[in-house]
Amino acid sequence: MRLTRVWAAELGPKGVTVNAVSPGPVDTEMFRSAGYDENAKNFLISRTPMGRIGTPSDFADVVAFFGFT
């Protein structure tokens, strides 16, 4: 997120908008293949405001809105 702020400060005066999506843990094939045990998963969940591991559909609309490809 720090880099996003730096880019925004640098590029904002030039009319460039800077956005970032930083969802935290998301239940994807890559996440599942990482081999987290239940303790690690529970730790991640405890640090997540949603109280669960996210899903790709939780963030898809945000990413589409910002026009990321």
Question: Can you tell me about this structure?
Answer:
The chain is mostly helical. It has helices at 2-11, 29-33, 38-46, 56-66. The radius of gyration is 15 Å and the shape is elongated. The mean pLDDT is 91.
Helical fraction equals: 40-55%
Unreliable residue stretches: none
Q: In what range is the share of β-strand residues?
A: under 5%
Order of helical and strand elements: HHHH
Biggest sheet layout? none
Radius of gyration: 15 Å
Total number of β-strand segments? 0
Shape: elongated
Structural class: mainly alpha
Helix count? 4
SSE arrangement:
Elements: H1 2-11, H2 29-33, H3 38-46, H4 56-66
Task: State the main characteristics.
mainly alpha, 69 residues, 0% strand, elongated
In a few lines, what is going on in this structure?
This protein is 51% helix and 0% strand. It has 69 residues and is mostly helical.
